[in-house]
Amino acid sequence: xxxxxxVVLSVVAALAAVGLAVGDSPWWWxxxxxxVLLGLLGVYDLLQRKHTxxxxxxxxxxxxxxxxxxxxxxxxxFVERNFDGRPFDRDTRSIVYQRAxxxxxxxxxxxxxxxxQSGHExxxxxxxxxxxxxxxxxxxxGGPDCTRPYDMALLNVSxxxxxxxxxxxxxxxxxxxxAGGFAHDTGEGGLSEYHLRPGGxxxxxxxxxxxxxxxxxxxxxxxxxxEKAAHDNxxxxxxxLSQGAKPGIGGVLPGAKVNAEIASVRGVPQGETVxxxxxxxxxxxxxxxxxxxxxMRELSGGKPAGFKICPGSRQQFLAVCKAMLQEGTTxxxxxxxGAEGGTGAAPLEFADHLGTPLTEGLLTVHNALxxxxxxxxxxxxxxxxxxxxxxxxxxLAQGADYGNAARAMMFxxxxxxxxxxxxxxxxxxxxxxDPRRARALDVGDKTxxxxxxxxxxxxxxxxxxxxxxxxxxxxxxxxxxxxxxxPGTVLSYEELYEWLTPGELLSExxxxxxxxWEAADPDRFTV
Length: 527
Known about the structure:
Layout: H1 3-23, H2 29-47, H3 52-56, H4 62-69, H5 73-79, H6 90-101, E1 121-123, E2 139-141, E3 150-152, E4 155-157, H7 167-180, E5 183-185, H8 193-196, E6 201-206, H9 222-229, E7 234-240, E8 252-253, H10 260-266, E9 274-275, H11 286-299, E10 305-309, H12 314-327, E11 333-337, H13 348-353, H14 358-371, E12 379-383, H15 389-397, E13 402-405, H16 407-412, H17 435-438, H18 443-467, E14 481-486, E15 489-492, H19 493-496, H20 504-507, H21 511-519
Parallel strand pairs: 4-13, 5-6, 6-7, 7-10, 10-11, 11-12, 12-13
Antiparallel strand pairs: 1-14, 2-3, 8-9, 14-15
Helix pairs in contact: 1-2, 4-5, 6-18, 7-18, 11-12, 12-14, 15-18
């Protein structure tokens, strides 16, 4: 029975009970009053726009909020589960939801974290804090070969595809980006009207399936790419090499979600499961990768071009750096995706056991670029469970220039982590192509939640930086982030890891890097 049918049934039952109470026996009021209240509640649930769950599940949806009120056990079990089943930090989720709603994210009393537990990290405050910056800084994306650079916000919407997400979810995300002045990564699922209609800045991501710019046999179509990349809303173009939650395998979109519209956007058959290949056809060596990214920049009319990667072998990434040096061209940006990042569909073994965590990935990419003298030409983005201002500041201190958030943005548009992304039965209309479920997601309300979340998160990051005595994110340094390695020892990131100096790999590689640097071949992806 449909959600409207349930409400209609309760209203009819209420009217019948009231009629019997008036015309037959007053005892019917004992049934009539509760039924009237249920009917009114159901009508209210259908008409309100704040809670998508209640619009899809009038009356019965209140059970979810009842469970949420029983803290902490039931709330953690029902609504704080990660996509791979591991608990998601309650404080982080609370901060994200409060900021998206525009309510105060402050709490009385102190931290509930064990600050003496091994692995605890903290940022170092200054005895000379600064006033909080009035205007959030932006990051100029565009190396020497880029003729149309783009000023990126400190926090942006990470890659999530139309098809995986509903049209209303994409509209809300892009609308939030337009309202807040930040960028929205399309994910590999193609460039749809829902990415373009609100007017937000777009990073168009191309994956191994080349959706939206592919030939009939699945190859890259340069003419289609150039035509779509020329759109004014498209500010950057990105080549997806791998994703943190499932490196080494392509994306999967179940056939139940591939309707006529999605099939048209992607250029694939309707109703058939879409599996992106694990590898690219456009390159097979580091040198060819570098050349293709340069070609993307040329086809886009000089817009910034880069690639996204979950780094694995340091030797392979150094081979890409050697290719950049020998070819005399570089990408304008590299997005580092961490293994802790989320996904709507991936084998559990991949999510649990494959992929480099964001910290190690960032350190590999940042140090390799510094050591080869290329760091000032390439901006580094970080994605992988960035949800709060503190998360963002930590990644900036580890070597990133800006951050991308996916899961937090999904929370803002209504995701409750029901873990039904791959089933087409998402209860909040975020990850479904069922029009009845998706239309319950109110675009106007969720647009403002996305804007508020990004704005408040960046403001939180700037407030933290000011307390550290830092005004410009570029001035954050590894010694400002510290980790307790055992109950009696705290070390800074400067002490924990090796940090290369500009051009060090070209002159005298340090011992820990020498073998990988020597073995790196710009014409082979060696293991």
